[in-house]
Every structure is written in structure tokens, then in C-alpha cells.
Amino acid sequence: MPSALKKKDIPVEICIVKREKEVLRDKLELSWKEFEREFKRAEELTTTLAAQHQWDAAELTLKAKELTDCKAVRTSELEQGKELEAYCSRLRFQLSAVEELLVAAQAKLVETEAISTKWMKLDELERRVKKLGAIKAVRHR
User: Fold this and answer.
1) Which of 58, 57, 80, 56 is nearest to 68 (CA)?
2) Band of the pLDDT at 71, cuts 50, 70, 90?
3) Residue ranges per domain, the chain?
4) How many C-beta neighbours within 10 Å does residue 137 have?
5) Counting Cβ atoms within 10 Å, is residue 38 exposed (0-12), middle (13-18) or buried (19+)?
6) pLDDT digit string, tens, across residues 30-57
7) Distance CA 33, CA 80 (A)
8) Per-residue pLDDT at 3 exceeds 80
9) Buried residues in 62-90 as b, exposed as e (16+ CB within 10 A)
10) CA atoms within 13 A on the CB side of 49
11) Whole-prediction pTM
């Protein structure tokens, strides 16, 4: 038994470790819920973006047909180019927002992995405490 750990200190240490474990579990649960919420939001944005893209693609197809039938092709091409640039700008903005959500989700994942590592260390400490308790029980006999 280490000299720094006295018999009377073991129950206190066990209580401290249990409380820290509860706190870490609560933090992990909150982090996981936040991660799931942000991940769901990213999926919703991705779905919305895909639907908007399909709708816009269909709309662009119709505009392209109208453009070929139009006598003022040059004027119509310029207008279509402006619309396309605005659409691309919107898509870039939406893509940027989705990428930011992805970065945030990845950061949460890293944080969750760090918490999991702490849990594994805590479990190891609990095993050690149990082992010390068993050693103490054997020595006490």
C-alpha cells in the first residue's frame, strides 16, 4: 500500500473518484446530446440543400430551353449568368455554413473522444482502488 494513501483516506478517495465519475458521465451525456443535435442539424441542412439543388437544376434546365428559343440570346445569357452567379453565391454560403457545422461536429467528436479517454482512465483508477481494497481486506484478516 503506498505510503501517501492511508486506510482512513481510501473511503474519501473512493467518494471523490465516484463523484468525479458522475460529473464526467454528465458532461459526456451533455456533449453527446449536443453533438447529436448539431449532427442532425447538419443532416437537415444537407437534405435541404440537395432538394434545393434538384429544384434549381430542373429550373435551370427549363431556362436553358427557353434561352435556345429566344432571339435575344446574348441578352438572355447575361441575365442567366447573373442568376447563376447569385445561385452559386448562395450555394457557397450554404456550403460554408455546412462546413462550419461539420468542423463543430468534429470538434465535439474530439472532445467526446477525450472524455472517453478520461473515462477509461477513471475505470483504471477504480480497478486500482478495488485492488487496494482487496489487498487491505486480505491484510486485515
Assistant:
1) 80
2) low
3) 9-136
4) 9
5) middle
6) 999 999 999 999 999 999 989 998 998 8
7) 44
8) no
9) eeeeeeeeeeeeeebeeeeeeeeeeeeee
10) 18
11) 0.34
